[in-house]
Amino acid sequence: MNSSKQKKKGFHQIKVSDCVEPASISRMEIDSEELENLARSIQSQGDLQAIEVVERNGKFEIVFGHRRWLAHKILKKEKIWARIVIKTKDEITLTRATENIARLNLTPVEEGANYQTLKEEFGMTIEKIAKRVGRKASRVKRMLDIVRMPVEFQKAIHKGQISPTVGEALWRCEDETHRLYLLDLAVEHGITATVAAQWVQEHNKDQRQSLDIKNEGGGGASPMEGSPHYMTCDVCHGPEDTSKIKQLILCGECHKKIART
User: Fold this and answer.
1) Comparing C-alpha atoms, which of 173, 164, 161 is closest to residue 141?
2) In the list 19, 50, 53, 150, which could disulfide-bond 81, CB 3.0-4.6 Å?
3) pLDDT of residue 243
4) Do residues 186 and 158 touch, judged by C-beta distance below 8 A?
5) What percent of the chain has pLDDT over 70?
């Protein structure tokens, strides 16, 4: 499409079929029930918010509003309101990352992936990311650490099978094979972060004692035994000795509220 036929910047109704999905999608998955609810809302109340797109070669690449576009497809609508903007590739990536982080229902893994984009593609420090998105630097670092975990851990956290704190505790297991075994147990039975830390401490201690016996021919106490072990507080995100950790019984909704702070 030549420039004379391009739509001007601003709000327009464009064909749903002329839109293309974002070049990179930061959501690991989009809940089908969530989409159905959004589609019902659009059907009953109308399209209250336009999507944002950039025009490329006669098509419209979605900058944000991907779910609303998918909901329109479910409703088999022919047109959708869109705000057409002019942005470079870097500007689009930056907009997507910051817009996605503002969403309330991102999983920790998805949130971390957006921080990783800002860090790797734009060279932002943790402090700059925190300032841009309005979060504490300690939270940004914690979410970045989550996307450094093995894929199996990320999937379990993303699906809500284990909490980020349990994942952090199990990740400290020095034996990769045993670490995955502990992860399977945690997913199957459901455990607290305190229990996860105890599992890891016991295994790491056994491993060190076994190494001492092999190397020295005796079973003396490990030089690491008795050293404090720390975990991240879910509220202030500061370190706390596992021997001093206090446990609360929380429902899923209350845990989400605390995790978002």
Assistant:
1) 164
2) 50
3) 65
4) no
5) 75
Q: How many helices (H) and strands (E) in the chain?
A: 11, 7
Rounded to 5°, angle at Cα 202 from 196 and 207: 125
- Domains, in order of start, for the chain: 3-86 (3.90.1530.10), 88-148 (1.10.10.2830), 159-261 (no CATH)
For residue 253, is pLDDT > 80?
no
The DSSP secondary structure of 190-202, one letter per residue, reads ---HHHHHHHHHH
Pairing of strands 19-20, 10-15: unpaired
Using an 8 Å Cβ cutoff, are 12 and 23 in contact? no
Q: What is the pTM of this model?
A: 0.60
Residue type, 124: M
